[in-house]
Specification:
The chain is of the alpha+beta class and 273 residues long. It has a domain of 148 residues: 3-Layer(aba) Sandwich (Glutaredoxin). It contains 8 helices and 10 strands. The chain has a 6-stranded mixed sheet with strand order 1-8-7-4-5-6. A hairpin with a 2-residue loop joins strand 7 and strand 8. The longest helix is centred in the N-terminal third of the chain and has 29 residues. The radius of gyration is 21 Å and the shape is globular.
Length: 273
């Protein structure tokens, strides 16, 4: 069994500087002043969402083939009979072990576990993975993701206008036509991850180096992927390892070559077990 880390910066947090102590009235007065800004932020978010609903749309190929558990599936079938679809495009490092798969995509995808509220609004949700279905589906099983999962073959990417993976996109179905209505990426994907919104409410925040925090506040994490990792693998993998789940993704499927992106300049590492 791989060595399992403990939380890495507990002493740093517990020995960190703390806010000034005041009485309840003074605390509430400061919170009330902040609440005015929070409400303005919420109203601006509502206004942006209203503008988003008024965007035009662009048609994409409804018959774009994806690979699911039962083989090829056209994009329009991923709607599962609903009128709308949200798709997250998950990066994949072919031929690499689970520990070397995308930490940011793992962070985002691990948070999406309940689809009933989307379904009640006639919205489906799915993950479109870069790379071979055989590997990526084993990763899905290891992580315990409950959402529908498909692989997007290389020759299908341009047919649904994917700029790069790590994108969150929205689609509308009208009869046998499919239209893209919105997409975002990078920090736009934070909407998928309530952990960040909750951390933003805590006194020490995300504990990332870019944050505007008082002197003496713990700030350990960078913003180039390390904030999603713990001891060399995506942090969300560790509970699965502790639970005894097998993270072996198996042999690389025929016809694929190992990922050679800038993160992987050497030979593929062996399976982590």
């Amino acid at each position: 069994m791989t060595n399992q880390p403990t939380e890495p910066n507990v002493p740093e947090i517990r020995d960190a500087a703390r806010p000034t102590v005041v009485d309840r009235a003074a605390f509430q007065a400061e919170l009330d002043r902040l609440r005015v800004r929070e409400k303005a932020h919420t109203r601006e978010g509502d206004a942006i969402a209203a503008a988003r609903r008024r965007l035009p749309m662009v048609e994409v190929d409804a018959q774009t083939p994806l690979i699911g558990a039962d083989g090829p599936v056209p994009l329009i079938d991923v709607f599962d009979g609903r009128s709308q679809l949200i798709a997250y495009f998950h990066m994949w490092h072919t031929g690499r072990p689970a520990a070397e798969q995308c930490e940011g995509c793992t962070f985002s995808t691990a948070h999406v576990t309940e689809l009933a509220y989307l379904h009640s609004r006639d919205v489906s949700y799915a993950v479109f993975s870069e790379g071979p279905y055989e590997e990526a589906s084993r990763y899905r099983e290891f992580m315990g993701y409950p959402v529908p999962w498909y692989s997007l073959p290389p020759d299908s990417v341009d047919r649904i206008a994917v700029r790069h993976f790590g994108v969150l996109a929205c689609y509308l179905r009208n009869g046998d036509q499919v239209f893209e209505t919105y997409w975002t990426t990078s920090r736009g994907n934070e909407v998928m991850a309530p952990s960040y919104a909750l951390l933003d409410r805590t006194v020490y925040g995300r504990q990332e180096l870019w944050e505007d925090s008082p002197e003496g506040w713990p700030q350990r994490w960078g913003s180039r992927g390390g904030q999603f990792q713990l001891d060399g693998r995506p942090a969300a993998q560790w509970p699965r390892i502790r639970a005894g789940r097998d993270d072996d993704l198996g042999a690389m499927p025929d016809g694929w070559t190992a990922c050679t992106c800038s993160l992987h300049t050497g030979p593929p590492a062996g399976p982590t077990s």
